[in-house]
Amino acid sequence: MAGGDAVTSTPCRSQEEECSFFLSLEVKDRLSQKMDLEGQLRKMGSAPPGPVPEGLIRVYSMRFCPYAKRTLLVLRAKGIRHEVININLKNKPEWFFKKNPSGLVPVLETSQGQLICESAITCEYLDEAYPEKKLLPGDPYEKACQKMVLESFSKVPPLILRILRTQNKEDCSGLKEELHKEITKLEEVLTDKKTTFFGGNSLSMIDYLIWPWFERLEALELNECVDHAPTLKLWMAAMKKDPTVSSLLTDVKTFQGFFNLYLQNSPEAYDYGL
Amino acid sequence: MYCKGACSGNIGCDLPPGAQAAVVGSSFLERVGNPPARWVGSPRGFCAQVSFQRPGSAGPCAHSPGRADGCPSLALLRKTGEARPTSWLNFKLHWELGLCCATMSGGTVRSLGKGSAPPGPVPEGLIRVYSMRFCPYAKRTLLVLRAKGIRHEVININLKNKPEWFFKKNPLGLVPVLETSLGQLIYESAITCEYLDEAYPGKKLLPGDPYEKACQKMVFESFSKVPSLMVSFLRKQNKEDCSGLKEELHKEFSKLEEVLTNKKTTFFGGSSLSMIDYLIWPWFEWLEALELNECVDHTPNLKLWMASMKNDPIVSSLPTDVKTLQGFFNLYLQNSPEACDYGL
């Protein structure tokens, strides 16, 4: 399940019932999942959460938000103790705008009340503030290279969103062409570098930053867009094997259920699968 | 030729402190090719404090070793009553005296266009920036290079007539691009600025604290709508009603005003100038040329910030003249290949 499970504001389930969703996960993961579970889905009219306990960092998230997924991946990869509060993005609590005036997730909140918004900024912040397991390279040029790859990836998220929203599948061919072009750019990066991952031979920040959209390809029936990109296909397979990625993997059916409700503008979308 | 860095940087010379001129000696004339039909010296002209010797060596230019008060061309200039070389003839005279510092910095170098020869490798000890005199994105990189005192050379690109070789430097064909002596290429203005701050010692423009650095990036994010709004405004001028755009711009400026009001500091990063200020400055330079000064009327802290920025030695060493900018806009909107060299 995606990190940060939620309960609705109607009668809370018992911890046991929540845990039963995670029988397939390994025990050690379940402990961190419990922390995610305690996140309540907050919506309009809900009480603002209290301050963040010391020793913990909080992330305001949404189970199916790819941008928030970046932050969750980094938190896990670096083993940072955190708590998750999921926000109903179709029915936002008023207090959430004090956390981020733009009303978007992800947002980080520290125990000192510091707030950090914008997914890429949150990820870089975490890498710098928590020194163990650096995800960004130390060399300025290598770091710049990762940022340039992120830049060349930047057209993909809006394209995928447009494809999702295009009800009439016929009209998608133009968008799919564009997506194919963008994916070819990324394929070139990998073939030029001759490494498995975008930052070298081991997984690093840039891989986590772009992964959430590749996670969605199958659910959107867009696997064909990577057909001409064999190195990228290998990268996707390698990513799925990564412990952090696989612990936060969302299955196809759950995605599709969410997309369905999301396109209907249903406020129930964000709790889908619970 | 090297700038000796003798002045405080306020003199407004086109040669950046510590920068090396891209060519040395007689090849300068070959490089420049035919002199422009009308040599119009930039208002800033050239500082006469240069050396033909290696950087750091004592003394003024080779033609007058031992002179402590600088290049004799300065004496000549004083004699003729001119502050700066203002004509090609005048410049050539100085050149023949072997004294003039032919600046190859961004201020006066003609842009390279289609058919031009690709530049050679970047000399060691130097970093190269591919730029365009009026590009606000490239201005960011130039400001950071100067602020950190990084020795660099500038190659201007004619963005309306791009050389084929430039796409090997950046497949997107955009400036700015950094090229190191190792042949490493870095593009996207914000990435170039962060790279320079990390790769070069000396004054750090970004804060060390992760949260403070994140705050600067969040301000940068909230500024992000301004560039496209201003370009839209530039393109629409005299054609359609711009009040909608002005409203939007005003809204974006109010966001920035809030940041300053909440922080209670002069600059966006605190009480001294830092990276975020340089990153957003180049668009505020455009306000006057676009007759948009009214958009900061309701944002007093932003107005004060603009005034403080204009007083900064680095910012004032790279000024943009309103008339020149307007001349550029005019030609740029006509898609003229002469636009990028306007004023030279």
UniProtKB/TrEMBL annotation, chain A:
Residue ranges of every copy of the GST C-terminal domain listed in the record: 139-263
Gene Ontology CC: one annotated term: cytosol
Keyword Protease among UniProt keywords: no
GST N-terminal domain segment(s): 55-134
GO BP annotation list: glutathione metabolic process; L-ascorbic acid metabolic process
GO molecular function, a single term: methylarsonate reductase activity
Keywords: Acetylation, Cytoplasm, Oxidoreductase, Transferase
Cellular localization per UniProt: Cytoplasm, Cytosol
Top-level lineage group: Eukaryota
InterPro entries for the chain: Glutathione-S-Trfase_C-like, Glutathione-S-Trfase_C_sf, Glutathione_S-Trfase, Glutathione_S-Trfase_N, GST_C, GST_omega, GST_Omega/HSP26, Omega/Tau-like
SUPFAM superfamilies: GST C-terminal domain-like, Thioredoxin-like
UniProt-listed Pfam families: GST_C_3 (PF14497), GST_N_2 (PF13409)
E.C. number: 1.20.4.2, 1.8.5.1, 2.5.1.18
Chain's role: Exhibits glutathione-dependent thiol transferase and dehydroascorbate reductase activities. Has S-(phenacyl)glutathione reductase activity. Also has glutathione S-transferase activity. Participates in the biotransformation of inorganic arsenic and reduces monomethylarsonic acid (MMA) and dimethylarsonic acid. Exhibits glutathione-dependent thiol transferase activity. Has high dehydroascorbate reductase activity and may contribute to the recycling of ascorbic acid. Participates in the biotransformation of inorganic arsenic and reduces monomethylarsonic acid (MMA).
Oligomeric and partner information: Homodimer.
Similarity comment text for this entry: Belongs to the GST superfamily. Omega family.
Protein name in the entry: Glutathione S-transferase omega
Organism in which the protein naturally occurs: Bos mutus grunniens
Automatic annotation (TrEMBL), chain B:
Lineage, uppermost ranks: Eukaryota, Metazoa, Chordata, Craniata, Vertebrata
Name this protein carries in UniProt: Glutathione S-transferase omega-1
Pfam hit, one: GST_N_3
Keywords: Acetylation, Cytoplasm, Oxidoreductase, Transferase
Domain GST C-terminal positions: 209-333
Organism: Bos mutus grunniens (Wild yak)
CC terms in the record's Gene Ontology section: cytosol
The EC number(s) this enzyme carries: 1.20.4.2, 1.8.5.1, 2.5.1.18
Compartments where found: Cytoplasm, Cytosol
